[in-house]
């Protein structure tokens, strides 16, 4: 599985960005596609995840109500709509895939990773 993220950039606090992650290779069966992020000097942590059907989603408490994860299976793409951005959202955002049927949110449960895209929120 290959994952390519796009959509990062510089935005003012309060603004919005939409990240995209296009997958190629094996994308059949039960799997979750997730967004993680890593700020300088901090550990990588989950932002949101969604299962293959879109019926299961999970959000980190810090982004609930501001971020929305969605997917387009026809395009093999997962999106992260980020609204009301804050300076603390500044990080490298990574897309990841886990071939699991049950919800997984731990970094070690995800087998495939993209290269990351930088999101910088200016205050």
What's the gist of this structure?
This protein is mainly β and 123 residues long. The protein has no helices and 11 strands.
List strands and helices in order, with pairings.
Layout (H helix, E strand, L loop, with lengths): L1 E5 L2 E4 L4 E8 L7 E7 L6 E7 L5 E3 L7 E6 L4 E6 L8 E8 L13 E2 L3 E6 L1
Parallel strand pairs: 2-11
Antiparallel strand pairs: 1-3, 3-8, 4-5, 4-9, 5-6, 7-8, 9-10, 9-11
Describe the structure.
The strands form two sheets. Strands 2, 4, 5, 6, 9, 10 and 11 form a seven-stranded mixed beta sheet that branches. By secondary structure, the chain is an all-beta fold. It contains no helices and eleven strands. β4 and β5 (45-51) form a beta hairpin. The chain has strands spanning 2-6, 9-12, 17-24, 32-38, 45-51, 57-59, 67-72, 77-82, 91-98, 112-113, 117-122. The radius of gyration is 13 Å and the shape is globular. Helix content is 0%, strand content 50%.
Keywords:
123 residues; 0% helix; 4-stranded antiparallel beta sheet; 11 strands; single chain; mainly beta; globular; 7-stranded mixed beta sheet
